[in-house]
Specification:
about 210 residues; Arc Repressor Mutant, subunit A; 2 domains; five-stranded parallel β-sheet; alpha/beta; Rossmann fold
């Protein structure tokens, strides 16, 4: 695997020495690292589309790490965050974790604790990217369906039989079979169970 293809750990800390120390640690285990002195520097940088995570200092000039976490969410940037701080307290850590942070480490922390959190964050991001890619592909397949085929698909996954679907949409059972066959082919579903699983993945996630 080339350096460009490696998962990337982004480090944001205004302490140059600590930034370099974390970058050296990350690179020592074969990962790619990029460091920034501020959140603004990070936002201006060009980032490759690959699994990544963010090691973020809570106390930064101009914008705190917690405020930057909120800004990332508002701008649609979803990346696992590991907070580090020398001044952490329980309310601060609770706020960070409730907002989606993966870990909250207080300086000085053990190198292994940070590496463990980084590997967990990268794996979370990898899985999330795979799920997003799968959903994107499923949506592309759905777009190839006609309006009637989408209607038939919805009724099939709801558990209705061909005869019931024909009665529901006012057509013949033979026509339903044709639509159903088209749905299975276009969605690349090997079975009704597979089609139901696809439909479940396309349902919006419930808000927490």
């Amino acid at each position: 695997m080339t350096t460009e293809a490696l998962p990337t750990v982004f480090i944001i800390d205004d302490d140059r020495g600590l930034r370099q120390a974390i970058q050296d640690l990350v690179e020592s285990v074969g990962l790619r690292a990029e460091s920034f002195a501020s959140g603004e520097d990070f936002l201006r940088a060009k980032r490759m589309n690959r699994p990544s995570c963010l090691v973020l200092d809570v106390r930064l000039p101009q914008m705190s790490g917690l405020d930057f976490q909120q800004r990332l969410t508002e701008t649609g940037i979803h990346i696992p965050i590991i907070f580090i701080t020398a001044h952490g307290d329980i309310p601060m850590s609770v706020r960070a974790l409730k907002s989606g942070a993966l870990e909250f480490l207080t300086k000085p922390f053990r190198d292994q604790d940070l590496l463990d959190a980084i590997h967990q964050a990268l794996e979370r991001d990898r899985v999330a990217r795979e799920q997003q890619s799968e959903i994107h592909n499923l949506l592309e397949r759905v777009r190839t369906l006609t309006a009637r085929e989408q209607e038939v698909m919805n009724l099939v996954v709801s558990g209705m039989l061909n005869k019931q679907i024909a009665s529901e949409i006012g057509t013949s059972e033979a026509t339903v079979k044709i639509h159903r066959g088209n749905v299975m082919r276009k969605m690349k579903a090997g079975s009704v169970v597979g089609l139901v699983r696809m439909a479940d993945k396309l349902k919006p996630s419930p808000r927490k």
